[in-house]
Design goal:
The chain is mainly α and 296 residues long. Helix 9 crosses helix 11 and helix 11 packs antiparallel against helix 14. The N terminus is likely disordered.
């Protein structure tokens, strides 16, 4: 390792040496770690294990029957469809919003930032009610939509719109601080050297934010598949048509079909675990790019 690398402020040994927590007594460190692990085991790990245990309580045959039921398969297809539409749209919006906020100054910039954060502060149930008020039979556009045979609320379009609303901030909020940290120097240099706007974005900006972009997409997809509140309001709970996987779990549980409910819930849990693994890999790769001398 070069001298510059060994004396860099982000050197691993320097970070640990300068970390005040590393100088705490061993008993305090272990106590804090024990509390964290206990909390994780009791409130996160045990409930997750309970989901899989209940899903398989009646055996693999009952499990496979539950997840291959027509209503369950319809719920899976609709969940995947909503995510497949919401994530790409939020990807385009997130990149455009982050680029505008981080790289340009304009009137209404603070308003745009506030609007991006709106789904974080508004209850998903309220978001669903807003779509009912706008597109429902008695809503602002309800009569016009009915005249033209267009159905949004209690149909697939309403579910997709509600999913888009609740997932709007995830990609933009990952990209904005990264693009702000980059500054504008590299983009301005590329433009001075004759690069077009698209070339500047594709060859300068995008490579610098690729890991943050992937991280935001993963979080957006996870939220899209697991959304319950807003989708519940606009879906109408029509079995085999407008039920996503979370709604299917609720219906089965309310009907005391506990094994089937936990079977579908286990699929959502598996999706969450896969998301966690991908998220960890992305964080590791991003860290390896940031500190290449410390990569294993």
């Amino acid at each position: 390792m070069s001298t510059a690398s060994s004396t860099a402020p982000w050197n691993r040994s320097a970070r640990f040496t300068s970390n005040p927590a590393a100088r705490e007594p061993r008993a305090i460190r272990w106590a804090v770690i024990g509390v964290a692990l206990t909390f994780f085991a009791v409130f996160l790990l045990l409930p997750l294990l309970a989901v899989f245990a209940e899903a398989l309580r009646k055996g693999w045959a009952a499990y496979l029957t539950a997840i291959s039921a027509p209503d369950a398969l319809s719920a899976m297809r609709l969940t995947l469809l909503a995510a497949a539409v919401a994530v790409p749209l939020n990807l385009v919006f997130g990149i455009a919003a982050a680029w505008a906020i981080a790289k340009h100054d304009f009137r209404g910039k603070n308003v745009l930032i506030t609007l991006i954060d709106l789904p974080f502060s508004v209850s998903p149930v309220i978001a669903g009610l807003c779509y009912v008020l706008v597109f429902g039979a008695q809503g602002w556009f309800g009569p016009w939509l009915a005249e033209h045979g267009i159905k949004i609320v209690f149909a697939v379009p309403g579910i997709i719109l509600a999913t888009i609303f609740v997932t709007v901030p995830f990609i933009a909020r990952e990209l904005i601080p990264l693009m702000q940290a980059q500054g504008r120097d590299e983009e301005e240099a590329a433009l001075v050297l004759g690069a077009s706007g698209w070339q500047t974005f594709a060859r300068v900006t995008l490579p610098n934010v690729k890991w943050g972009l992937l991280y935001g997409v993963i979080l957006c997809n996870a939220r899209a598949m697991g959304e319950f509140g807003a989708v519940s309001v606009v879906s109408g709970h029509i079995r085999g048509q407008t039920n996503t996987m979370p709604l299917q779990v609720e219906i089965l549980y309310n009907e005391y079909s506990f094994a089937a409910a936990f079977a579908v819930a286990s699929l959502l849990a598996l999706l969450a675990l896969v998301t966690l693994v991908i998220k960890t890999i992305i964080e590791w790769r991003a860290g390896a790019d940031l500190w290449p001398d410390e990569a294993p």
